[in-house]
Amino acid sequence: MSPAAPPSPSPAPSASHTHPASPAGTPRPSRGARLLDWRVRFGALALIWGFSFLFIKVGTEGFAPFQVTFGRLLFGTAVLAAALVVKRDRLPRGARVWGHLTVAAFLLNALPFSLFAYAELTIPSTLAGICNATTPLWGMLLSLVALSEDRPTRVRAAGLGIGFMGVLTVLGAWQGFSGLDVTGTALALLASFSYAVGWIYVRRTLSDTGVSHLSLAGSQVGLATIQLAVVTPMFTSMPKSVELVPLLAVIALGALGTGYAMLLQYGVVAEVGPTTAAMVTYFIPVIATAAGVALLDEGLTWNTPVGAVIVLAGAALTQTRTSRRTTPPAKTPEPLPATDSPSARQPATRT
To answer: How far apart are CA 114 and CA 235, in angstroms?
Structure first.
């Protein structure tokens, strides 16, 4: 899930360090972050984001979808704010930056989080997790139009076609989508589309801000929290009673899936680069499916896992880059997306 911030900010000294073997400004994980091997943190990140769809499903059993979204953003903001205080990082400055972050918060947090919550009222968490994996497909399709530097290749075009064939397989198109909740599935796919649109937006509008990754991410999630704080009371009423399990699910969804997971991803990207870190995308639907089937007793027909494999294969092909004869100049790695959909960052990532 998802997790966007603009590319190539100049890191604040208090938020990151410069690796001797890396370009100036490349963030280096702190000593505390490196106590755990990056592979362990990578696995923890995949588990947290994979279980996020289960947390959404459980949360909606006790709260309205907007309340689930507001809760996850609130607890996620608390974790990121604490990290900002500990690192003594500064918030972005300038009306332009905050204006663009407000739009990014809507496209990458408030809107897709709410859409997934509403979708899981009627579709299983397994299907929601697979729909999330379509984000690289939407991203490539949009980048061909919005990003002039992203030129199509035969392999990437084939990946796009294969990926959408996988979507049709998951949905059981040959059966006329019988037994499928069309509205819920459409909402989940729209959420993934929103991630892709959001990343393209920040790529075009928020480059070279001179602000650290953590500051941008924390500010963006905080703005999304404010947006939901305004919307939620307009469409929901306070629950008559609060059940413990849904409450714990919302807390875990926010504190782990939206807050702590972003800090984990920050460290992994800083240590091994965005391309390797983005591979977590391909584990999320697998974990989401396993969790939904094992813990929520959700049904699973043959076309769901088969279609998911096809979707992931197509998504992987869309992320390939043509080899170059000359080595391009080193570039500062792009910052983390303020979303729990790492695939939202894929269309814009170049190494």
So the answer is: 12
Summarize pLDDT for 107-153 with one digit per residue, the tens.
Answer: 999 999 999 999 999 999 999 999 998 988 898 888 777 665 566 67
Q: Contact 26/15 with Cβ under 8 angstroms?
A: no
**Mean pLDDT of all residues in the chain?**
81
Q: Which residues pair with 18 in a beta bridge?
A: 27
**pTM of the predicted protein model:** 0.81
Rounded-to-integer distance, Cα 294 and Cα 300, Å: 11
End-to-end CA distance of the chain: 23
Residue 283 exposed, middle or buried by CB count within 10 Å (0-12, 13-18, 19+): middle
Distance CA 60, CA 14 (A): 39
Query: Side-chain half-sphere of 232: how many Cα atoms within 13 Å?
Result: 24
Tell me the torsion sign for CA atoms 147, 153, 159, 165. Answer: positive
Residue 287 DSSP code: H
User: Which residue type is seen at 274?
Assistant: P
- Residue 304 and residue 324: Cα distance in Å, rounded? 37
